[in-house]
UniProtKB/TrEMBL annotation:
<feature type="transmembrane region" description="Helical">
    <location>
        <begin position="111"/>
        <end position="130"/>
    </location>
</feature>
<dbReference type="InterPro" id="IPR006634">
    <property type="entry name" value="TLC-dom"/>
</dbReference>
<keyword id="KW-0812">Transmembrane</keyword>
<dbReference type="GO" id="GO:0016020">
    <property type="term" value="C:membrane"/>
</dbReference>
<dbReference type="InterPro" id="IPR050846">
    <property type="entry name" value="TLCD"/>
</dbReference>
<feature type="transmembrane region" description="Helical">
    <location>
        <begin position="166"/>
        <end position="189"/>
    </location>
</feature>
<dbReference type="GO" id="GO:0055088">
    <property type="term" value="P:lipid homeostasis"/>
</dbReference>
<dbReference type="GO" id="GO:0005783">
    <property type="term" value="C:endoplasmic reticulum"/>
</dbReference>
<keyword id="KW-1133">Transmembrane helix</keyword>
<dbReference type="Pfam" id="PF03798">
    <property type="entry name" value="TRAM_LAG1_CLN8"/>
</dbReference>
<feature type="domain" description="TLC">
    <location>
        <begin position="70"/>
        <end position="293"/>
    </location>
</feature>
<feature type="transmembrane region" description="Helical">
    <location>
        <begin position="142"/>
        <end position="160"/>
    </location>
</feature>
<protein>
    <submittedName>
        <fullName>DUF887-domain-containing protein</fullName>
    </submittedName>
</protein>
<feature type="transmembrane region" description="Helical">
    <location>
        <begin position="258"/>
        <end position="281"/>
    </location>
</feature>
<keyword id="KW-0472">Membrane</keyword>
<feature type="transmembrane region" description="Helical">
    <location>
        <begin position="37"/>
        <end position="61"/>
    </location>
</feature>
<feature type="transmembrane region" description="Helical">
    <location>
        <begin position="201"/>
        <end position="221"/>
    </location>
</feature>
Length: 299
């Protein structure tokens, strides 16, 4: 499926300008999507800096104005995160359902293939992670080193996808973000003085269910699939790597190599993230249970 995003004329000029650097870095599909990355970065920067603060002050002045400097920064970041997670999940689901080329990819195409719609999802995610990294660097004292490392690793991983590599799986792992809106709402409830309310409890239950299904069950299943594809690809002959007749889908494939450093980077990242998901799930259960017990005591 072709990229449905509007392409401004200036993007062709900019794409051609950065093409030599992208070719040198083996990011062959990046020039075709650099405008989407910059667009997403700009949108989230505007939300964080110029939209969330005044709108929050206007509609929630009795709460937002009383927040500390650090809490206001986190509030603005949660606003950008809310828009990003809802948008990227909707787009990822739409691509999974509507992109017939992507759905019918074989092993070779899942690793080195490319469709414009799947790359759009990847580009918008990259734009958000670029924004996230900039914020983490600017306010390192507020968000901490751990969040800086997270932002850096996500940006590197999704940028490397423009080799292209694992273009098929970009949409798959973006569905992790289905739990993020519930997490943001949970945080907002605390800041709005709604800690321990039934609304927060119901949202907490939804958060646990969605997190478990999307990150633990779907995440483990998808990680197994990508491990299997990588294992099979590492045992392919050079002739077998040419097993695709779709020239359009493979137009950025290059030599169809799978460097060991790239395998280690992706695989170790997935193992680490799955371990973190289990850890975070335990923390979420404890947090929701704590608030529920407090509510019961009050009644």
């Amino acid at each position: 499926m072709h990229d449905p995003f509007f392409v401004p004329a200036s993007s062709f000029v900019f794409g051609e300008t950065i093409k030599p650097l992208c070719d040198y870095l083996s990011l062959r599909s990046l020039p075709s999507h650099i405008h989407e990355i910059l667009f997403a970065f700009g949108v989230y920067h505007l939300i964080f800096e110029y939209i969330a603060p005044p709108l929050s002050s206007l509609f929630l002045s009795h709460r937002y104005s009383k927040l500390s400097y650090e809490s206001k920064l986190r509030w603005n970041m949660h606003c950008a995160s809310m828009v990003s997670s809802c948008t990227i999940c909707a787009l990822a689901l739409w691509t999974i359902v509507m992109d017939d080329e992507r759905r019918n990819m074989n092993l070779i195409e899942r690793l080195w293939g490319y469709t414009g719609a799947a790359a759009l999802v990847q580009a918008l995610a990259t734009g958000y992670f670029l924004f996230d990294l900039v914020v983490m660097i600017r306010y390192l004292d507020v968000f901490g080193l751990g969040m800086l490392v997270h932002a850096s690793s996500c940006l590197i991983t999704y940028t490397l996808g423009f080799r292209p590599i694992f273009n098929y799986y970009g949409c798959v792992f973006m569905l992790y973000e289905l739990s993020t809106p519930f997490l943001n709402i949970h945080w907002f409830f605390d800041k709005l003085g709604m800690t321990g309310t039934k609304a927060q409890l119901y949202n907490g239950i939804a958060l646990l269910v969605v997190f478990f299904c999307c990150r633990l069950v779907w995440g483990a299943y998808s990680s197994f699939n990508i491990y299997r594809d990588v294992w099979n690809a590492l045992h392919l002959t050079e002739a077998a790597k040419m097993g695709s007749n779709n020239d359009e889908m493979m137009r950025f494939a290059g030599d169809r190599s799978l460097p060991m450093w790239l395998v280690v980077l992706y695989m170790s990242g997935h193992v680490t993230l799955q371990a973190l998901n289990v850890f975070w799930f335990g923390k979420m259960i404890a947090a929701v249970k704590k608030r529920f017990v407090k509510t019961e005591k009050k009644s």
